[in-house]
Amino acid sequence: MSALLRMTPLVVAALVWPLFATSSSGAVPTPPVPVRPGIPELHLDVERSTMPNGLRVVLSVDHTSPTVAVDVMYDVGARNEERGHSGFAHLFEHLMFQGSADVAKGEHMKLVASHGGTLNANTSSDRTNYFDLLPESELPLGLWLEADRMKSLDVSQANLDNQRLVVEEEYRMRVLNAAYAPAEQRLDELVFGGYWPYEHPVIGSMKDLDAAQLSWVQAFHAAYYAPNEAVLVVSGDFDPAVALDRARAYFGDAKPVTPPPYEPGPMPEQTAPRGDVVEDAHVRFPAVLYGWPIPAAHTPDHYALEVAASVLAGGESSRLYQTLVHDRAIAIDVDAGTEDHRGPDAFEMSSKVSGKGTVAEVERVLAEAIASLAKTPPTEAEMTKVRNGMASHFLFGLASNHARAAQLATFEMYWGDAGLLNHELDRYLAVTKEDVSRVVARYLVPTHRSRVEVEPAHEGRNQ
Questions:
Q1: Gap between the Cα atoms of 418 and 431, Å rounded
Q2: pLDDT (0 to 100) of residue 39
Q3: Would you state the pLDDT for residue 441?
Q4: What does the alpha-carbon distance between residue 151 and residue 291 come to, in Å, rounded to a whole number?
Q5: How many CB atoms lie within 10 A of CB 207?
Q6: Is residue 18 pLDDT above 50, yes or no?
Q7: Residues 76-80: what's their mean pLDDT?
Q8: Does 112 have pLDDT greater than 80?
Q9: Distance between CA atoms of 210 and 206, rounded to whole angstroms?
Q10: Is the model's pLDDT at 137 over the cut of 80?
Q11: Within its chain, how far is the Cα of 55 from the centroid?
Q12: Packed helices 359-375 and 433-443: angle between N→C axes, nearest 10 degrees
């Protein structure tokens, strides 16, 4: 959720309201009382059920657009990988398009495209998500395709070898040759040092992928790609009775599994600052990146920290942007936000230094801004701006069937009830300015900070 806090203010929230003015089913806990100056409430239609094989089904009807999103989220991400077997969750993001019992290699994408749809997938530390966006008449196709690959994916040596090369090329493009990417990975290693689920990157180690044996990959697939480890969401223009009937017909014979227990243990406590310097041949400007361990997403202090991130660096009117970029021009950008992990999380801040400044000057401004916010709460004007920005991007971010389906799947999987999405904005709006100062003072402290400095590589080095 942190990304929505770093965007622009509310445009016209009233334009969003008619889209969501339907009823919601299922009881959810009462959220804190929010501050709601002209911001509408959210009332998504949410119908939940669970099949005998454990597949959780969430249906959300909205007839605004004649399209439908089919989203299948699996409860497996990088956090579930064993040491030496990293990158497997992301690998399956690719393998899932390599064919199944009734769908040849590459045909899933061709069928969706030829019927007027789009599709994609993505992996995080906490889950893997697959979605198809189709015309409403093609809902059966989307459900059938997802069911077929859930039940009969072709995890063969040929597909493993082929997609391993694809992932290694992606690693070269998005990590090795991407400016600042190695530093971002290094920051996570420092912040989550000793906590395997989040200290290693989602894309994994290329050494681990090179060494991966087919039997290891097949075992990983068998452990997690099952109905009782997944959430199916259908969102858009459809008949819920028909959708549920089709879902039962296509997914009903998928076999449940007993997944390995997830027991990562507590995250080691950080008692002293951590730091490193990364030389990067692909950057023009020096940079400094900070990270602090914080509580998990969906906890009260986490919401307050997200608001703090927006006060500090949420847009061009934020405190740090005004000082670093607008007034003094010693930085070319500044950003702050949370990683939004299900388990322990991280608050991260970064700034690229312009030719008019130095890393030391930028760091002094960062330290002063954090100390000031810890001591003195934000102004009412700042809180109003942040609340409006959150409302705007939260509500407009749910306008598409695909985005809505992904959020509903996340809430069902992470927090056990997709209906909680209706109250998520309230939890941000309930954060007080005193909460903001309190969490900054408690969590953004020097002894818990990890720091990575990025230096442009000198000519003749890193070759």
A1: 22
A2: 80
A3: 98
A4: 41
A5: 11
A6: no
A7: 98
A8: yes
A9: 6
A10: yes
A11: 22
A12: 130
Mean pLDDT (the chain, rounded): 91
User: Which residue, 100, 121, 101, 97, is CA-closest to 109?
Assistant: 97
Show the tokens assigned to 313: 């660096």
Mean pLDDT value across residues 273-277: 98
pLDDT at residue 74 greater than cutoff 50: yes
The residues pairing with 153 across neighbouring beta strands, listed in sequence order, are 100
Element (H, E) at 234: strand 230-236
User: Over the stretch 329-363, which tens digit does the pLDDT of each residue have?
Assistant: 999 999 999 999 999 999 999 999 999 999 999 99
| Whole-Å CA distances, 118 to 114, 131, 180, 308, 389 | 9, 9, 31, 36, 29
Classify residue 360 as exposed, middle or buried by CB count within 10 Å of its CB (0-12, 13-18, 19+): exposed
310 to 101, 269, 289, 296, 335: CA distances (angstroms): 48, 26, 17, 18, 9
Output the CA torsion sign for 365, 366, 367, 372.
Answer: positive
Distance CA(152)–CA(96), nearest Å, equals 10
The Cα 36–Cα 425 span in angstroms is 10
Cα–Cα distance, 126 to 123 (Å, whole number): 8
Q: Please state whether beta strands 345-353 and 287-294 pair in parallel, antiparallel, or not at all (unpaired).
A: antiparallel
Which residues neighbour 7 within 8 Å (Cβ) at sequence distance 6 or greater? Answer: 314, 315, 389, 392, 393
pLDDT, residue 30, reads 54
